[in-house]
Amino acid sequence: VRTIGVITKLDLMDEGTDARDILENKLLPLRRGYIGVVNRSQKDIEGRKDIKNALAAERKFFL
């Protein structure tokens, strides 16, 4: 099985919630694990936030 889990919109989670156990493959294990993603919002797109800056913001979010 070549399935990975993709968790999106991590930046929109309610304060106090934590996806760490999922991302560390502890809660519902998948053979290939999970990846977290922070996409550009509609506001970012309308504000013409480019992909390079969006990727930098995503990296910063996960550090």
Automatic annotation (TrEMBL):
InterPro entries: Dynamin, Dynamin_stalk, G_DYNAMIN_dom, P-loop_NTPase. Residues 1-63 form the Dynamin-type G domain. Keywords: GTP-binding, Nucleotide-binding. It holds the Pfam family Dynamin_M. The keyword Nucleotide-binding applies. GO terms for biological process: receptor internalization; synaptic vesicle budding from presynaptic endocytic zone membrane. One of its GO terms (molecular function) is microtubule binding. GO terms for cellular component: cytoplasm; microtubule; plasma membrane; presynapse. PANTHER family: DYNAMIN. This is Dynamin-type G domain-containing protein. It comes from Bracon brevicornis. The lineage of its organism: Eukaryota, Metazoa, Ecdysozoa, Arthropoda, Hexapoda.
